[in-house]
Amino acid sequence: MSDLAAEVSAVLRRSILPSVIARGAAIRVSAADDGVVTLETDGSPGAVLPILRRIEEQIRAAVPGITAVRLAAPTALPSSPGDLAGAAQRILDAEVNPAIAAHRGHVAVDSADGGWIRIRLDGGCQGCSLAEVTIRQGIEPLLRARLPDMTGVADVTDHEAGTDPFFSPEKR
């Protein structure tokens, strides 16, 4: 990753990503060259467009070398049946884990078979009363959009064994 892309990525994580995630999407730098940064987004289709101007203003104010911000649609990741787990884990590591780290959480691919991706939630996500919402409204749509070979997501987490959930069942 170039220095410019790393600077913009830091701005995204620090001040933009929480707003985008709250709107049901994810955003990341896909390219940064000659002062032009290209952002890729996925999740809720209308989440980023209404705030794109504000995003561009924040990036340009924080990273003076940026002269323009472009938005690109996400590309589906090619996956072979044997690499579905690896492709899913790369997406989770790049787009989900940085966001749920704020809740002391982490998600990992346990296995993939027949198009089904089995995931395990750890840390603050294990036993969290909102884990199902995170999976069905966040993780599964993201993976479905990026991995056309995916059939579905199954949670194989032992939630009863969670010792420090971010939202305990009594907070529900």
What does this protein look like?
The structure is a single chain. With 172 residues, the chain is of the alpha/beta class. It has 2 domains: 70 residues, GMP Synthetase, Chain A, domain 3, CATH 3.30.300; 91 residues, GMP Synthetase, Chain A, domain 3 (2-Layer Sandwich), CATH 3.30.300.130. Helix content is 37%, strand content 25%. The protein contains 4 helices and 6 strands, in the order αββαβαββαβ. The strands form 2 sheets. A 3-stranded mixed β-sheet has the order 1-2-3. A hairpin with a 2-residue loop joins β4 and β5. The model has no long low-confidence stretch (mean pLDDT 83).
Overview features:
alpha/beta; GMP Synthetase, Chain A, domain 3; three-stranded mixed sheet; 6 strands; 37% helix; 25% strand; globular
Q: Which helices and strands occur, and which strands form pairs?
A:
Blueprint: H1 3-22, E1 25-33, E2 36-43, H2 52-62, E3 68-72, H3 84-100, E4 105-113, E5 116-123, H4 131-146, E6 152-155
Parallel strand pairs: 2-3, 5-6
Antiparallel strand pairs: 1-2, 4-5
Helix pairs in contact: 1-2, 3-4
In the CATH hierarchy, the architecture of the largest domain is: 2-Layer Sandwich
Gap between N and C termini, in Å?
A: 41 Å
Task: Count the beta strands.
Answer: 6
Largest sheet: 3 strands, mixed
Structural class of the helices, strands and pairings?
A: alpha/beta
CATH topology of the largest domain: GMP Synthetase, Chain A, domain 3
Low-confidence segments? none
The H-and-E topology, N to C, reads as HEEHEHEEHE
Range of strand content: 25-35%
The top-level CATH class of the largest domain is Alpha Beta
Determine Rg (CA atoms, Å).
Answer: 17 Å
The strand order across the widest sheet is: 1-2-3
Mean pLDDT: 83
